[in-house]
Design goal:
Blueprint (H helix, E strand, L loop, with lengths): L1 E6 L3 H12 L4 E8 L2 H14 L4 E6 L5 H11 L3 E4 L6 H11 L2 E4 L11 H14 L8 H4 L2 H7 L2 E4 L7 H12 L3 E11 L13 H9 L2 E5 L2 E5 L5 E6 L3 E7 L3 H9 L5 E7 L2 H12 L8 E3 L2 E3 L1 H8 L13 E12 L2 E12 H8 L3 H18 L7 E4 L6 H9 L4 E4 L7
Parallel strand pairs: 1-2, 1-4, 2-3, 4-5, 5-6, 6-17, 7-12
Antiparallel strand pairs: 7-15, 8-9, 8-12, 10-11, 11-12, 13-14, 15-16, 16-18
The structure holds NADPH dihydro-nicotinamide-adenine-dinucleotide phosphate.
Length: about 425
């Protein structure tokens, strides 16, 4: 019986909101608030037409403004806020939640929109030197809210998408049920889907291209090891997808898992990319189209990567044309009862099945379902404690059950091929 405010109405939000409506025992009232209210109204009408008992409403909000958010939260009075806008808005939404005394949930950790901002840049340069990785996003900004959430008796659940999110729950599950000690974790994110375009990204292009064009890194014995972008390549044969090239990337759950599972000796993250995607991305990068620094074009200030986003297909529109499957999971090695053990926990998700069910492709689906699950567990008080947490810090069992129930069934392979 809770009242939920969802901020954002893009690809991920549309899945999360429809899944919340499937879970009407938990969510009885839901407001969809985003920058473009017409998208919220369109989704509300679609859900109402299909039939729901959840009482839906919509609003427009600029989530870069704490004041606007506070006004909205104060007037709607939700029990919990799910942020599925962009990582740029994480801190303003957390601030507003603290002011209004509401629990906070998101799917991606904070990064600034303007990476040239000198104040942010000075903190970033210091962090690069101290920690040894250069990604624009890191948990320090949101972990800094720990005391304030604790004192307010509120929960902030960070990164409840698939990766991060489910991959961290898989780790907690492996630690709880399969291992006394985990030595290595390899997170493998394979998208075997084909949308038929020469180039498109499966979620927000700006966030996606920033992530993929950055240096790679992994954690070994508690320390970061950084690589050049796409420097480490492996080939892996994925169940129900087949053989794919995959590349080592920096990814946010490595940081949280490294902190919360300090005994793990190595944590890596790999994502599959086709050659055409990489060639397009390199070319766009070489001509400056991935830059986040504004330039002046015929009297207008434009940010190249934002202009590129306007040219690329909207990820939310890829649903009808994407065929194939995703396979995302984690390979763990370690010991149980003195014996060596290796397991692979993964989910396979079919793009067309997702489209048939909710009108979206599998990347939005695999993120939106866990966003709903994390929110439901906080709303029901099952994952509720004061402070700022990632998904590996709670009992994984109820989350794992809900993955099976809400469309992301997982399997445990007890004899997987390891990644070299
Ligand atoms: P989209 O770009 O499709 O949607 C973003 C939504 O946020 C849009 O509705 C947009 O409004 C809205 N928005 C943007 N800025 C503001 C603002 N200032 N105020 C209010 N609303 C705003 O992104 P996705 O749905 O693909 O991604 C959503 C989130 O999910 C991102 O944070 C992304 O990083 C994360 N993600 C996490 C994954 C995981 O596995 N953990 C995987 C994939 C994504 P408008 O319609 O006006 O543009």
């Amino acid at each position: 019986m809770s009242r939920l405010l969802v901020i954002g109405c893009g690809g991920v939000a549309q899945v999360a909101i429809q899944k919340c409506c499937q879970n009407s025992e938990t969510f009885t009232e839901l407001m969809i608030a985003s920058r473009t209210e017409s998208k919220c109204i369109e989704l509300k009408e679609k859900i109402e037409k299909a039939g729901t008992t959840v009482k839906l409403s919509t609003a427009t909000v600029n989530a870069d403004s704490k004041d606007e958010l506070v006004k909205l939260i104060d007037s709607y009075k939700p029990d919990v806020v799910l942020n599925v806008a962009l990582p740029y808005q994480d801190l303003t939404i957390m601030d507003a939640c603290l002011e209004c005394k509401v629990d906070y949930i998101d799917t991606a950790n904070y990064e600034p929109e303007d990476t040239d901002d000198p104040e942010w840049r000075a903190i970033y340069e210091k962090r690069c030197k101290e920690k040894g990785f250069t990604a624009y996003f890191d948990y320090s900004w949101q972990w800094a809210y720990e005391e304030r959430f604790k004192e307010a008796g509120l929960t902030a659940l960070l990164g409840t998408g698939f990766d991060p999110g489910v991959t961290s729950v898989f780790t907690a599950y492996a630690a709880k049920h399969y291992f006394d000690e985990i030595d290595t974790i390899d997170i493998l994110d394979c998208n075997g889907g084909d949308h038929g375009y020469p180039f498109a990204t499966n979620f927000n292009p700006e966030i996606n291209l920033r992530e993929v064009s950055a240096n790679g890194s992994y954690m070994e014995n508690g320390k970061w090891v950084e690589t050049k972008p796409m420097e480490i390549k492996r080939v892996y044969n994925f169940d129900q997808v087949g053989e794919k090239d995959m590349y080592l990337l920096h990814h946010e759950e490595i940081e949280a898992l490294g902190r919360n599972f300090p005994g793990v000796k190595r944590i890596r993250f790999f994502m599959t990319f086709g050659q055409s995607y990489l060639t397009h991305m390199k070319c766009l990068e070489n001509v400056g189209m991935l830059s986040t620094s504004p330039i002046n074009f015929e009297g207008h200030e434009i940010v190249p990567i934002q202009f590129l986003k306007a040219l690329l297909p909207d990820p939310a529109s890829l649903g009808p044309r994407t065929v194939g499957k995703t396979n995302i999971g984690c390979i763990f090695t370690g010991r149980k009862d003195g014996k060596e053990r290796k397991i692979y926990i993964y989910n396979v998700c079919d793009h067309q099945e997702c489209y048939k069910e909710l009108g979206s492709q599998a990347i939005s689906y695999t993120t939106g379902v866990p966003a709903m699950i994390g929110t439901a567990l906080v709303a029901k008080g099952i994952w509720k404690k004061p402070g700022v947490f990632t998904t590996d810090q709670f009992d994984p069992d109820p989350y794992m059950e809900m993955l099976n129930e809400y469309g992301l069934p997982w399997v445990v392979d007890e004899n997987p091929v390891l990644v070299e």
